[in-house]
Design goal:
Number of helices: 11
CATH architecture of the largest domain: 2-Layer Sandwich
Protein name: ExoI SH3-like domain-containing protein
Number of domains: 2
CATH superfamily of the largest domain: Ribonuclease H-like superfamily/Ribonuclease H
InterPro entries: EXOI_SH3, RNaseH-like_sf, RNaseH_sf
CATH topology of the largest domain: Nucleotidyltransferase, domain 5
Domain ExoI SH3-like: 193-297
Order of helices and strands: EEEHHHEHEHHHHHEEEHHEE
GO molecular function: nucleic acid binding
Radius of gyration: 21 Å
Strand order of the largest sheet: 3-2-1-4-5
Largest sheet: 5 strands, mixed
Number of strands: 10
Strand content: 15-25%
Length: 297
């Protein structure tokens, strides 16, 4: 399946109040051979006040916000045409699930366009940041990384690119960041080929839930407090492994002795679930989690 590697620059760090002002992308096949690319920039919607820090980061001038030819609504229309032309594909960026995807969904919704274009069938989505964190957790030699004052590896795109020998002078522009994402992913693919296809098995909610219901023991990659960790887990019974409200997978952390849990009452289990460390781990099925073979934990 083709990879649609894309990135946006926005007028605000908050997806509720900002607008997309630049978007770029590169379409490649499974061997990273380029098939197409684009870059679009538009004027700021009339009446919107941009966030100064956002403009400093993406180096956008007032002239660029006001004098480019393409209007905001026009740009979204062109973007929709391109993404439809690129389908089916796995849409992937750098931290796109937490920001870019949310931004484009809200922008498309406000423009009366279908908001889930990047992950609705036949398309799927993943996140380059998730893949980099997972690959680094398996083998820290896969990428060079800066270490911050807390002793944690820095996974910001510009930092990773720079320390891995890539030119970063154009970072924080849409197409350039898409190119950096492509190059970092290519490094991971070449240095860790045995896990590359495994990473993409969770590119859709349905595929992820199939793994959760089918496998008895899995390795789950999670990131918190600045560290990427691998956990050996066993999903709950296939009939009950999906949370009834949040619709996310549930698995037991096998660092915990499960025997006492089996003999607890429902009320005791509820109390136990509130304690730390938690014995139950949540698998965010629709956010491209990294799930690997049990041998990696």
């Amino acid at each position: 399946m083709n990879l649609a590697i894309w990135d946006i620059e926005s007028s605000n760090a908050n997806t509720d109040f900002g607008s997309i002002i630049e978007v770029g992308g590169i379409l490649v096949d499974e061997n990273f051979k380029e098939k197409d690319r684009f870059n679009l920039r538009c004027r700021l919607p009339e009446g919107e006040i941009p966030q100064c820090m956002a403009l400093i980061v993406n180096r956008t001038s007032v002239e660029q916000l006001t004098k480019v030819n393409l209007g905001h609504y026009q740009m979204l229309g062109e973007l929709e045409k391109i993404f439809k032309k690129w389908s089916p594909a796995i849409f992937i960026g750098w931290s796109n699930i937490g920001f870019d995807d949310e931004m484009i969904r809200k922008e498309f919704f406000k423009g009366i366009r279908y908001p889930y274009i990047t992950n609705s069938s036949p398309n799927k989505r993943h996140d380059g940041l998730n893949i980099a964190r997972g690959a680094y957790a398996i083998d820290s030699n896969v990428l060079e990384a800066e270490i911050n004052e807390k002793g944690n590896a820095v996974m910001k795109l510009e930092s990773l690119s720079r320390v891995n020998g890539l030119e970063v002078s154009g970072a924080h522009s849409a197409l350039f960041d898409a190119e950096l994402t492509l190059k970092i992913l290519n490094l991971i693919k070449n240095k860790q080929p045995q896990t590359w296809n495994e990473f993409f098995k969770t590119s859709s909610r349905a595929d992820t839930e199939t793994i959760i219901k089918k496998e008895n023991i899995i390795t789950l990659n999670e990131y918190f407090y600045g560290k990427s960790r691998l956990y050996l887990c066993t999903p709950l019974h296939p009939k009950y492994c999906i949370h009834p409200i949040y619709q996310w997978g549930q698995a037991v952390d096998l660092r915990v002795d499960v025997e006492p849990l089996l003999n607890m009452s429902i009320n005791d289990l509820k109390l136990e679930m509130k304690k730390s460390p938690k014995f139950l781990r949540t698998i965010r099925s629709n956010k491209a989690p990294i799930i690997l073979d049990k041998s990696y934990a």
